[in-house]
Amino acid sequence: MIQIHFIINPIAGSGNHNISKKMLQAFFDHNEYEITVKFSVYKNHTTKLTLESIEQKAQIIVACGGDGTINEVASCILGSPIILGIIPLGSGNGLASNLKIPKKIHKAIAIIKRQDVKKIDAGSLNDRFFFSNTGVGFDAHVIKHYEESNNRKLFSYVTAVFKSLKNINDTRELEVNINDQTFKVKPFMVFISNSNELGYKISLTPKASLEDGLLDIIIVSKLNPFKIILFSFLMLFKRHHLIQEVKSFQTKNMTLSRKDFNHFKMQIDGEYRLIESNTINISISEKAINVFA
Ligand SMILES: Nc1ncnc2c1ncn2[C@@H]1O[C@H](COP(=O)(O)OP(=O)(O)OP(=O)(O)O)[C@@H](O)[C@H]1O
Question: What does this protein need as cofactor (predicted)?
């Protein structure tokens, strides 16, 4: 019997999915799979549920939600033989889209039942992990405003972008150490990605691969309002690197540090996090997690 656990985020995306134990049971042969279904009932509850599933000897844990839910499940099973399944119920679903996992529930389940395993890389940031992307600056502001909106839809991301434009002059100097170069920057954004998609088919790092053992970085120094509009427009066509303030890198590790503050306001896989340290060490673990894709 294969022990398969589903951990469902009921508020992911628009929150109006009808996924239930009864519905899932209909897809799986009772002689082959033993199904356990859990719902998260508060923020970060998924971590506790996943740790319980590991204790309960789950062989497959399916994250049913967006990048934030995947992050909570995958961070717990990293480096273990447990296989991650994904049913994309989120708003952006960047990682699922990079893995070509369809949003239709029955199609995502077909991928789990096919049992083709891919090993993908995992990023780490001090003592946390990311599987899709992380960043400091404009993207972190956008995620903070998005979470405050209490509505997880594309429109909320667009509103959050406009609200974040008010904070654009709040750029403090960072020291960046990457590929044996050290330099200072007042960033509009430092964006670090494992995946080639942010969600909604938008990408800041279109050449990134989940399997190349590298992180794709873009560092954008302070932009004036005209350049921000130009940057946003070019990003839609994946041409933002044409702006001179945008520098692209690929690396296995990097460090961000700052002297004036002892914290970083970051987004990690689309969730706002305050990291209490004046140094951020970022690296990648190659092929660290097994995923059905
Ligand atoms: N019952 C719940 N009530 C409130 N928050 C929850 C609950 N269950 C999970 N969460 C939180 O929801 C957040 C994750 O949302 P998730 O990323 O899965 O969806 P999304 O933001 O709609 O999708 P995406 O990140 O792909 O845009 C996490 O911070 C998680 O801890």
Answer: Mg(2+)
